[in-house]
Amino acid sequence: MPVEIELKLAVAPGDVARLRRHPLLKALKAGRSRLYGVYFDTPEFDLYQRRSAFRLRREGYHWVQTVKLDRGSVGGLSMRPEYEVRVAGNQPDFAILPMEARAALTREVEDRLAPAFVTDFQRTVWDVERPRGTVEIALDSGHIRAGEADLPVAELELELVSGDSAVLFEIARELLDAAPLVSEYRSKALRGYGLLGVWREKPGKAVDAEVNKRLPAAEAWRRALLSGLDQLGRNLPGLLAGDDPEYLHQARVAVRRLRTMLGLGRTLGLDREAWVEALRWFMAELSPARDWDVFVTETLAGVHAALPEPERLDGLLVRAGKVRTAANRRARAAVRDRRLTNLMLDMGEALLVAHDDGPPLAEWAGQALDKRWRRFRKLAGRFGELDAAGRHQTRIAAKRLRYAGEAFAVLYGAREGRYLARLADLQDVLGVANDVAVAHRLLAELNRDGREAYAVGLVEGYIAARAEAHLSELIGRTAAMVKARPFWR
Predict the structure, then answer these.
(1) Residue 299 belongs to a domain with what CATH number?
(2) Helix axes 217-241 and 338-350, enclosed angle (nearest 10)
(3) Does the structure show a pLDDT above 90 at 103?
(4) Could you give the CA distance from residue 455 to residue 312 in angstroms, rounded to a whole number?
(5) Helix, strand, or coil here: 427?
(6) Residues 216, 361 contacting (CB under 8 angstroms)
(7) pLDDT digits (tens, 9 = 90+) for 16-46
(8) Are residues 285 and 163 in the same domain?
């Protein structure tokens, strides 16, 4: 069965010319063509539901029909069965498709296929031959249209023609010298369905890694990292769009999951300090935006709604909104920073290789969970004595225990469900306490010149009173979690 292996990266339209001028591409002969494609589906969008696609595309004087079966992507790298044949006219001809492709479509679907949306691109192609393999580089710049809806798109696709898939990452890293490139998991077809309203971009939450009891520990570690990398990549387009703070939140969750698993990898001799440092940098770029999002939309909004004279906060809200906007610009700039793309390329390349070593998974998982549990219990056991920094460390310890528990939950059947749910609830409660500590810091930042002293005083008083009322509950819930029986024991 033919399998397409490609690496897809988004390019800002303004960077397309700079990318073309890269020495690697300028030294090669370029082929140029217009690609006009028509995507088909049933009125009920059966192909979309099956994560498949059927396309007719005009290439020069000919039409080519293609069937693609999506198998997902990680860090922009996708592997999917693809069936492609030339047709005599501009209408589908199912009879000439390979039997495997027709079986994937089914006769019932074939009978009801109709045009759904079109893609119209100028494609520039370069063929690169390296000792490790041959790669086709395609730069597409154009539009996706569905009725009156129009979406401009520019993207780079590196497709493996022959050899080792590692050569895709090698070339991608070289092209990063010319322009920022961002991992892109969305196919043109998916974005076409978005224009139709069938598919909607939404924040990518954590999904279970494909882990089972028979795997060696190192392989489970690899798969858990792939799951975290996939979650990170699926939140980058929405984070760049900047219209929903949940993308930022889920990107930070993905980074924390990755950092947790990288910490566990040290016990297997799988140290990846360069990855840890890059993730630490990226988290530092995202965190101010998250702090200001929560402060403006939850803390200040809550105080504003509770005050009898909410207009007294208007000046403070304006100031906070401006700082929040700047923090979100910083976060979006980090997404386009070469350091992040380099990190995702490095991880994607390394994690393609399966591991068959390490101790038995159950043994390693138990030891890893014990270590994180002891750290959490040490802090939580004296929670009432801790200052704000200590309580923040308790929250971090709870997160790391939870992420490790979720990674290995499949090993323990139904036992882990209640424990992890209680841990997640505690994490949320600890998060509220942390939001109060962050609010005090941000209020001080907003009032450096003293011009908002009165408004800041109102907010400080309100959140301090709430925090005091909340503290006894927080101490009790933390103590109860310490006494809970660990599910892996």
Answers:
(1) 1.40.20.10
(2) 150
(3) no
(4) 6
(5) helix
(6) yes
(7) 999 999 999 999 999 999 999 999 999 999 9
(8) no
